[in-house]
Structures are given as structure tokens and as C-alpha cells.
């Protein structure tokens, strides 16, 4: 056997270091090509690194919790087939980021994939064990490869696997099973049933979206979120120490750097307006009841997304970038959605959102949210955004003054939609009311453009039929 060392690769966009989060193998383990070796955290996302070798692990060269520079060897393997030549991401390989090679259309089906997916052969017909193998996330000079693998189980707190101690306590504190509906049997795997117990979700009340009519993890989480935003938030106990020190690294460090740069580089200007969103709520209700949108999450955020795209077309400078020498106006919309995850705030974006139908946009937003919540958003999904939405209403907030995502000149905040008194033709009537807030880079967007853009967004929320134009 040949001794082979696996150096930490650049997983995309010129990242220089990453933290070793957890090893998935130990010395003495036999590994195959594309088997996940380790989970790392970059400044943008959690990434699983697959093995470029088949053989036996002899030594782990980096401890969990340590930060390693790109190019530093992290594991040593006695490889059966010798060293495999790796191609760095970006050198003619556009299959995707390490650990997230499945196309968007396949990601929704990952739960149904076999636990150990078989790597696809290269265009030359060679297998991964032979020369010219196609490694997940790396590619070769002769072709590309993809694989489908099961998405790891994620506990309600965002961790990969709930601690055994917590599981035992929960088992004692809750009923042994979740009751099913008498008329319609509930189809759900044991991990899904456990998740439902953890979230106090009655599976008989959950709408199943699985291909075989089964309830998926996302169905349970979505149902729990709709019931209450704050259901799973617990008050942690203070420890014996009077203070807690949290290292500033990874996503938190990247967020801090980006927000400071944005706040002190772009002069922000913000505007706000109240909106009667009654017709938006009626429109959302009709979509939920339609067969075309069956199994797809529909919320006012979908209408907001379409409203922003529509308003951008009418006010193109809001969809721009500033370079000191010129203003670049984008004739496409990479729509960013600010997503709060257990690891911090990230802003993945839907590429070319202006070309998507309402149904396609709904599916894209749902997949974006699921991927972000699971910590699997690849760096490419967070790059090249042009305008952003932050849905602070999901936390019950009415409005705020959002800070621009670096590189963009517009961000829109959607507040909570609540029933309030609304004056119509001199009469006070109940209405679903929300507040739309927006911030802009005043170097590009003047007050009149900021006001017209925000008014256009509000117009669509007041009358979704404008989207038919």
C-alpha cells in the first residue's frame, strides 16, 4: 500500500482556512472513494469532505476544533490504489462545491436516496477506484461526476445528532408514540417520529410531501414553525462561571467583517411604509388550496419576492453595484434571502429569479431555506447577489433598519402581518397590515428612487394582481 496524505482543499472562492468540526473516521477505519472523512466549517458554510483515496486510515493530522490553512495535510491513508491526482475546484470543474454536488432538482429527493450512493463513472467509463476517478466535489481533467447521498439527520437545535442523554430525557418526558389519525395512516420513519415528539408535533396534523406519501423532516419542521415561532426556544441555565467567552471565527467572524464594511462604506438611507396586505393573505390562501402548489410551502414571502423583482424592473438602479469608478446596473435578479441559522446569519440567493414562474420561485425559496437551515449552503449560493429581502416578520417584528448585504445597494424588510384597524373610504375596517422597510446605498439610490421602489413593492402587496402585468 502507498501512504497518501490528504491536504485541506480550497472549497471555493479563495478561502484560505477552515476549522475541523468533526471527524467521521478514526485510525484503523477502512474508507472508500467519496466516503465522507470530515466536516469542516469555512467562513461561509459547513462542508463535508469526501475521501480521494480507498484504503485504511492511519493517522488524523488535525484535531477537532482547530483551524487549518488550505494545503495543510489533515489525514494520512494507506491507499490501495496509490495516490489519486486531484484537480482544484474551479480549474475547469463546475460540478459544484465539495459536499453539495447534487443539482437543486435532486436535493429535494436526498432523503429518499440510499445511505451509500455509488459514485458516477467518468466520461471515460472508469470507476472511482481506478485511474481518472471522479471524486465528489473535485472532478478530473476528463469529465465530471455527481453522486446522491442521504442528507444527515439534523436535531431540532441544529446539531447533526442529538446527544443520547437528551434523547433519553425526552423519551421519559413525552409519550412513547405520536397518535395517528384514525382514517388516514401516518407514514413516517422512526427518526421523523422522534423529531415530531421533540417538537410536540402531532403527525396526524402534518401534510406529507414525500414521494410515497410519507412525512419528511421538512414537513415536521414546517408544521412546527407555523404553529409558533418561539416554540423551541428554551432559556439556558447560567453556569458556575460569571462570563462566557465565545471565539470569533467562521461564519460569525465573516458576518462581523461584512457588516462593519457595509455600515461604514455605504451611506445608508432607509424608508418605511404601512401596507394593507389583506389581498396578499387571500392570494396566499388560494395558492395553498390549489393543486398546482400542493406540497410546496407558500407564504407572504413568496409574494414579497415577486414584488421586489417587479419593483426592480421599474427602478433598475436599486439592482446595482458600486465600484468607485462606475455603477454596474444588473439586468438580472439574484434574489438574496437573509436566513437565520444555528451558525449565524447568511444570505443565499436565488439565481436569475426574474426568469422563474411563481411556482418555480416558491420551490426555489423552499429549497434555499432548507439547505440554509441544515448548514449545507455552498459558497456559490451566497455569491453574486444583487438585492436582498429580510423577513423579520417571521419573528413578530414590525420593521427595522436593515444593513445592506456587501456589494448590493438595496435591501427590503418585510414586517409581521397582523390584523389591525384600517381606514377605507372614511370607515374603519379590520385588515391585515404590515410594514415594508428598505435601506439603500445613497451613493447610487436617491430619495425619490428609494421611495418609488418601496411604494412599488407595497403596491404589489396591496394588490397581487399587478403581477399579471
Description:
- The protein is of the alpha+beta class and 469 residues long.
- The protein has 3 domains: 111 residues, OB fold (Dihydrolipoamide Acetyltransferase, E2P) (Beta Barrel); 64 residues, E3-binding domain (Dihydrolipoamide Transferase, Irregular); 218 residues, Chloramphenicol Acetyltransferase (2-Layer Sandwich).
- Helices cover 23% and strands 21% of the residues.
- The protein is built from 9 helices and 19 strands.
- The strands form 5 sheets. Strands 9, 12, 15, 16, 17, 18 and 19 form a 7-stranded mixed sheet that branches. A 4-stranded antiparallel sheet has the order 1-8-6-3, with no helix packed on it. A 4-stranded antiparallel sheet has the order 5-4-2-7, with no helix packed on it.
- A hairpin with a 2-residue loop joins β13 and β14.
- α7 packs across α9.
- The chain is globular.
List the helices and strands and how they pair.
Layout: E1 2-7, E2 17-23, E3 30-31, E4 36-41, E5 46-50, E6 55-60, E7 67-69, E8 73-79, H1 104-107, H2 164-173, H3 190-198, H4 217-227, H5 250-265, E9 268-276, H6 278-289, H7 300-314, E10 320-322, E11 327-329, E12 335-337, E13 339-341, E14 344-346, E15 349-350, H8 358-373, E16 387-390, E17 410-414, E18 418-424, E19 427-441, H9 447-462
Parallel strand pairs: 12-16, 16-17
Antiparallel strand pairs: 1-8, 2-4, 2-7, 3-6, 4-5, 6-8, 9-19, 10-11, 12-15, 13-14, 17-19, 18-19
Helix pairs in contact: 7-9
Amino acid at each position: 500500500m502507498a501512504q497518501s496524505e490528504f491536504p485541506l482543499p480550497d472549497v471555493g472562492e479563495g478561502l484560505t482556512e477552515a476549522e475541523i468540526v468533526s471527524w467521521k473516521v478514526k485510525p484503523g477505519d477502512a474508507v472508500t472513494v467519496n466516503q465522507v472523512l470530515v466536516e469542516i466549517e469555512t467562513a461561509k458554510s459547513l462542508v463535508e469532505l469526501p475521501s480521494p483515496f480507498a484504503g485504511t486510515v492511519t493517522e488524523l493530522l488535525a484535531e477537532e476544533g482547530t483551524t487549518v490553512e488550505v494545503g495543510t495535510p489533515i489525514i494520512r491513508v494507506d491507499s490501495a490504489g496509490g495516490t489519486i491526482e486531484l484537480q482544484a475546484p474551479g480549474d475547469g470543474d463546475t460540478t459544484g462545491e465539495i459536499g453539495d454536488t447534487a443539482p437543486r432538482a435532486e436535493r429535494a429527493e436526498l432523503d429518499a436516496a440510499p445511505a451509500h450512493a455509488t459514485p458516477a463513472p467518468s466520461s471515460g467509463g472508469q470507476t472511482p477506484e481506478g485511474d481518472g476517478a471522479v471524486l465528489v466535489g473535485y472532478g478530473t481533467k476528463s469529465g465530471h461526476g455527481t453522486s446522491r447521498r442521504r442528507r444527515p439527520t439534523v436535531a431540532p437545535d441544529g446539531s447533526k445528532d442529538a446527544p443520547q442523554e437528551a434523547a433519553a430525557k425526552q423519551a421519559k418526558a413525552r409519550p412513547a408514540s405520536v397518535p395517528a389519525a384514525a382514517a388516514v395512516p401516518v407514514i413516517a420513519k422512526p427518526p421523523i417520529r422522534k423529531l415530531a415528539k421533540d417538537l410536540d408535533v402531532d403527525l396526524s396534523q402534518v401534510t406529507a410531501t414525500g414521494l410515497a406519501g410519507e412525512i419528511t423532516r421538512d414537513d415536521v419542521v414546517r408544521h412546527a414553525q407555523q404553529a409558533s415561532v418561539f416554540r423551541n426556544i428554551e432559556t439556558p441555565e447560567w453556569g458556575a462561571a460569571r462570563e462566557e467567552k465565545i471565539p470569533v471565527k467562521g461564519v460569525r467572524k465573516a458576518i462581523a467583517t461584512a457588516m462593519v464594511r457595509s455600515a461604514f462604506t455605504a451611506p445608508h438611507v432607509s424608508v418605511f411604509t404601512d401596507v394593507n396586505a389583506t389581498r396578499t393573505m387571500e392570494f396566499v390562501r388560494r395558492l395553498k388550496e390549489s393543486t398546482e402548489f400542493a406540497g410546496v410551502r407558500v407564504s407572504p414571502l413568496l409574494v414579497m419576492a415577486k414584488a421586489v423583482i417587479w419593483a426592480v424592473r421599474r427602478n433598475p438602479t436599486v439592482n446595482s453595484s458600486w465600484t468607485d469608478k462606475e455603477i454596474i446596473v444588473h439586468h438580472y435578479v439574484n434574489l438574496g434571502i437573509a436566513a437565520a441559522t444555528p451558525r449565524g446569519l447568511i444570505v443565499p440567493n436565488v439565481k436569475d429569479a426574474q426568469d422563474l414562474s411563481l411556482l418555480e420561485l416558491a420551490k426555489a425559496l423552499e429549497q434555499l431555506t432548507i439547505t440554509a437551515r441544515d448548514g449545507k449552503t455552498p459558497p456559490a449560493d451566497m455569491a453574486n447577489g444583487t438585492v436582498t429581502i429580510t423577513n423579520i416578520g417571521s419573528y413578530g417584528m414590525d420593521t427595522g433598519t436593515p444593513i445592506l448585504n456587501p456589494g448590493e445597494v438595496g435591501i427590503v424588510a418585510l414586517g409581521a402581518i397582523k390584523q389591525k384597524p384600517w381606514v377605507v373610504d372614511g370607515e374603519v375596517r379590520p385588515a391585515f397590515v404590515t410594514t415594508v422597510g428598505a435601506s439603500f446605498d445613497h451613493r447610487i439610490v436617491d430619495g425619490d428612487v428609494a421611495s418609488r421602489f418601496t411604494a412599488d413593492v407595497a403596491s404589489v402587496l396591496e394588490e397581487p394582481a399587478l403581477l399579471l402585468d
